[in-house]
Write a structure and sequence with these properties.
This protein is mainly α. It folds into three domains: about 5-150, no CATH class; about 160-230, no CATH class; about 260-415, hpI Integrase, Chain A, CATH 1.10.443. It has helices at about 25-35, 55-75, 85-95, 110-120, 135-145, 160-170, 175-185, 195-210, 215-230, 260-265, 270-285, 290-295, 335-345, 355-365, 370-380, 400, 405-415, and strands spanning about 5-10, 15-25, 40-45, 295-300, 300-305, 315-320. The strands form two sheets. Strands 1-2-3 form a three-stranded antiparallel β-sheet, with helices on one face. A three-stranded antiparallel β-sheet has the order 4-5-6. β1 (about 5-10) and β2 (about 15-25) form a beta hairpin.
Length: about 425
């Protein structure tokens, strides 16, 4: 049975039914109690008893959005400035709370209509501000007297679309950062056809302005479009999010450290953790996140470094490093490791970064005529054209790893011997 925040399962004649249950914030709860209402909401989600988990999560997300808009409507003007579509949503949510729809003021008797208006516009005795934010109050009045069914058509913002996608798909923190970056750059706009222009401009800026690779931006773009489309379909919006054309852009070549620069780097006065990190970054292409996870064991008198996890399954690898006697776990954050290694590397090459050591390793192994199979095993390549074609040839067992000792000596003997 599905478990989620604010979701309750309550027994009904047909079986357990999903309910939305949430307590109002203290200020809003006090206002509602003063109006003779409950300070918490419990309502059946509008889905059939045999609804799928996705249908339930979509309905739960909509209930949360209605709840948040209602809280903002009762906020008394203390919240942030609301955009026009947010005001409309808050007004509709407020009408729904009282069992009303836009246009009901046209069909109710004058006496009943006046009672409802008095209830909606009632003020708190000693509290500052109105029960309902002034802009929301005006919109409630407009919708109540002259609204129609068309006003209930749901609009959705970029932020709401992303929240729906994250909740429904269980997106990792890494991909959430991509969505957050898009939201920060573009703003919390309504999801409509005009968003295609902003998506196009954002793509151009990512490639040409920030210099990100076309492949990386294409992947980020696919994630953003997937999140938007995930929210568009269940909300019935007549919006099509197009894929922008990727701009032509000649990316700068990755910096590769020269042998002179490498000798200068390892000739510096380094702490033990700095030296072992630089050696692992160079000899096995270990990136910052991998340095934190490295384990070590002995392999016929040679230190074997193991990367137990990585960005891809192919990054899980074992590489013999004869230029280290031992490996000590690094008790620093990934950010601290990256910052310190960056500082050291930029002293010998201002354009380089820790990742440059990975490119340098490939360059040096090519010079040493190390086979592509061995390079794939050492670096943990996941490119289908390079790695997967080798099959079991790149398997990281001891029989496969032992020949890499000679490959490492051929590549780095000039630097460490």
């Amino acid at each position: 049975m599905l478990k989620a925040r604010y979701l309750q399962w309550i027994e009904s004649p047909q079986g357990k039914a999903p309910y939305f249950y949430r307590r109002y914030p203290k200020r809003v709860g006090a206002i509602l109690k003063n109006l003779g209402k409950n300070d918490k909401v419990r309502k059946r989600l509008p889905v059939p008893i045999d609804a799928t988990d996705l249908d339930i999560m979509v309905a739960l997300d909509q209930a949360n959005r209605d709840f948040d808009q209602l809280c903002r409507a009762y906020d008394g003007g203390n919240g942030p400035v609301m955009q026009e579509h947010e005001v409309t949503k808050a007004a509709i949510a407020l009408l729904k709370q009282h069992g009303l729809q836009p246009g009901d003021g046209q069909i109710l008797s004058p006496a009943d209509s006046q009672k409802i208006e008095d209830l909606l516009m009632e003020t708190m005795g000693n509290m500052k501000g109105r029960v309902i934010d002034s802009e929301v109050a005006i919109r409630v009045d407009d919708l109540y007297h002259s609204g129609s069914e068309e006003d209930t058509v749901q609009s959705i913002t970029v932020q709401e679309a992303f929240e729906l996608y994250i909740t429904g798909k269980g997106v990792s923190a890494k991909y959430q950062r991509v969505l957050d970056r898009f939201l920060t750059d573009v703003g919390n706009r309504l999801v409509n056809q005009a968003l295609n222009r902003h998506l196009h401009d954002w793509t151009q800026i990512q490639v040409q302005g920030h210099g990100r690779g076309v492949a990386t931006v294409s992947k980020d773009l696919s994630l953003v479009r997937a999140a938007l489309n995930f929210a568009i379909r269940p909300n019935g919006l007549a919006v099509v999010i197009h894929k922008p054309t990727m701009p032509e852009y000649e990316k700068k070549a990755h910096p590769v450290l020269s042998r002179k620069e490498l000798k200068k780097l390892f000739g510096m006065e380094l702490k033990d953790w700095e030296r072992q990190s630089l050696i692992a970054s160079l000899c096995m292409g270990a990136i910052n996140s991998e340095l934190k996870e490295i384990k070590a064991r002995d392999l016929d008198g040679t230190l074997l470094l193991l990367v137990p996890s990585g960005k891809t399954k192919e990054r899980v690898r074992a590489v013999p490093i004869s230029y280290l006697k031992a490996w000590k776990p690094i008790k620093l954050s990934e950010g601290r490791i990256r910052d310190r290694l960056t500082t050291l590397i930029k002293e010998v090459n201002p354009d380089a970064s820790p990742y440059s050591l990975r490119h340098t390793a490939e360059s040096e192994m090519t010079k040493a005529k190390v086979s592509e199979t061995d390079r794939a095993a050492i670096m943990g390549w996941s490119n289908t054209g390079r790695f997967h074609q080798y099959g079991t040839a790149a398997k990281h067992d001891d029989d496969r790893v032992l020949p890499l000792v000679d490959a490492m000596k051929e590549t780095w003997g000039w630097l460490f011997n």
